[in-house]
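Quarterly update from the structural biology core.
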Amino acid sequence: MLAGLSANAAESTPPNILVVVCEDISPYLGCYGDKVAVTPYLDQFSKSAVLHTDMYTCVGVSAPSRYSLITGRYSSSDGANYMRSNFFNKEFGVVSPDGVKCYTELLRSKGYYCTNNSKTDYQFPSPVGAWDEQGNKAHWKNAPSGRPFFSVFNINVTHESFIWKNSKMPLAVSPDKIILPPYYPDTKTVRHDHAVLYTNIAKMDKQFHQLLQELEKSGQAKNTIVIFYSDNGGPLPRAKREIMDSGTHVPFMIRFPDGKWAGTKDQALNMFVDIPATILSLANIQPPAYMHGQAMYGPYKASKQREYVFGATDRFDEQVEKRASIRSERYLYIRNYMPEQSVYRPVGFRLSMPMMCEMLDMYKNGQLNEVQKRWFEAPAYAEELYDCKSDPHQIKNLATDKKSQVILEKMRLAYRKQWIDAYNKEWESCPEKYFIDKMWPGGVKPQAETPCLKLEGESVKVDNDLRLYTAIYQINDAGMNGKKDHWMLYTSPVSLRKGDKITVRLERIGYRPSIIAKCIL
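Predicted structure, tokenized:
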């Protein structure tokens, strides 16, 4: 039986699934204990949902995170951890390992109508076969009658860039009420940028409420699982792009339509790679073996909880670094492969943020204290160990503390065996160019092979290896319900009527789409 659904509902009607994703926030919500946040709607939602206290992304930035969110795999394992994948070539797209597909294709193959409104940013162009609808008009309400929907809505008002874009907007909170972490200087600019952050979150909260109201009014809420999370932590300096909690710890809530576990908290460690596996399980679909994640709910729920979550950083836009982390319930261990430089990297994009510029000036002028300036200083620590229980802001490095050596050795060993040896041997030893050459042999973007169509009576079969490729098709130049911009997902031979024309194209993540093949009965 599906978790959160009654026995009858689980057996007779697949649940709809609505996912609302905001950008660049840590758990800055009232329901997570934040005393400044103005989030009445999400706070109310939490009372009918399960609030996960320990959800983490593997890197504190969006594109690599979204790779994990669409494939269920660690972005570092697949050469997808560089922000962004088009750094060397504007056409560049990450090529996933053989057989890896957008998990929404599995939902589509089981009858789900899948829509995304509207961000992709997966480190590769979004395959047409991944969605029934993709764009700012995509909506679950367009699902055909009788078919379950899976629908994603992305709210971008909390994105890092809106700290400076909305800097002159009226504030929802007073800068004087801001509670600053110790790694920030207490200045007017810093407080104002924080107030803008909370104002943006208040706007996001209202947009979330509007999406839920629309669902309630439609009558669909009674069979719809609702999931909310942020695509990474942040968006302020020493948060976004980092693999400390400030960059990786995010809010995650899930509401079941029968009210099961409403108002409870789940304190298990989970990661973004677990989200695709969980959604498939909730739809009664077994997650594929290539996924690195494990289901949190549903019939395929993992039998054992995670002991650790992991993270890694590489290049952010024009700046290169290489760090990785392992976090237990209590401790965070970080290994720095480039300790000769500061952890702070002068990423040009965020230099538009007022507090970022001010902090740089203060550092150069010797106006930051020991805690505040550590982020800017070189050399950085080669190893870091933090007790997240007693030191939630991860200020005091215990790596050289004699009393912490047993814990340090345990974390080092787990890091080596469960992160590097298990998933990231290539990542640890190879530069970005290695992955590029591996994915684009000879510097040429690969192309999907041409569809091989075979007539079998009045049906057409696609005779390619569909473990590697996804086949999409149209009948008489149209998809479902005669829509010219819609492509149907091929799962089995397609029946045609006399005179019908079938148009088929093959896709694969990171590849150019194939040449189109046509057949007329």
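The first helix runs from residue 7 to 12.
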